[in-house]
Write a structure and sequence with these properties.
This protein has 381 residues and is mainly beta. The strands form seven sheets. A five-stranded antiparallel β-sheet has the order 1-2-29-28-27, covered by helices on one side. α1 packs antiparallel against α2. The chain is globular and about 75 Å long.
Amino acid sequence: MLKILFAFLGLAPFATCAGPLARDVAHLHDRRAIEMTADGVLAIAEAHQHRIVVEGNAIRWGARRVVMDDAQTLLQVPEEWSPCWGEALVTPPDEQWWYTRCGTQSRRFVISLASEARPNATLYAEEDRRDTRGWLPLFGSEPGGVLLKAMNGDDSDLRAFLVTAAGVKELGAIRRGRAEQIERSRWQAVRLGEERVAVAFLEGTSAVTLYTFSSGEAATTRLPFPQNTTYSAIAMAADDAGTVGIVAASASGAEGLVLPNNGDATPTHVHAVLASAAIENLRLIASGNTFVAAGTTQDGAIAIGEFDAKHVVASAIDAGGRVGDGDVFDIIAKGDGGIALYWSAGGRFFARGLPAEPVAYLLAAEAAERFAGWLAAKGLS
């Protein structure tokens, strides 16, 4: 009876895993535990049936190792590196994964790159590191990002450069009211097309500013998040049409808005996307016809919500995992149209596949589990 119920709801609790990962993956409904050991895993993803792991160590904070399939070391960043802020393991839907990290060694500034095509490469290097302030990796198949440098030694004003394997292109100036640390939770960048890049940052705790760079021109927008709210983090994503979604996290959840790619950079709706709890590890992806926001609550529960330019599909849906303090958490869009959650807890790693618009699926799964419990209580399972 349970098999019929799950089949009717489109769930697959008895699916099997094929390929190289089958030997160490155990399914529980659509969740699976990834059996592996590693010293200080910082990020994990799967692409082309390979597992890519970024290892680090909180004590040896400059060192990194990128490993594929638990055996092949692709990139080894030495311990004596002095890292700047900015690293990411990027897995776009076509699974052309890549990892990048910036830092200095012997006064030389370097952005290192690891990918399946270029396992140990240098994306960018310069001898003078004094003005470099941060590195914002750009989601997409082509490795690259936005390099931020101080203007005239003044950290309140920055100059942005687009860095890819094709070279370096100056985007323009970013002027901010104060010199604050550049980190992932407060700075985000997305590619909007061949010649367009958007950079958003959280100023202080209540203002989110967006810079859109295109053909040497820069447009600045102060986004209409409520000014009486204290925000701790932002996340940004863009779909293939250049539509931008942004979420900002506060003590009461996360709010989101959408900027259509039609020349009008003034969004009209701000949604409560992840409500009722403080959100950490804030993430956002474009998926299907919506944006999917995800994060963790203070008790480690994984919350997930969907929204578009006009409304919120649903918010604060528990995706069925628990994430420990300092553990790994990420969400990525998959090439088959679905999404994947990765997280760690208690020294173990987990993955969960979901449809591109996951809220209806999660609601159906919750209903199925409750009904299964009722059947078991009645002795009908």
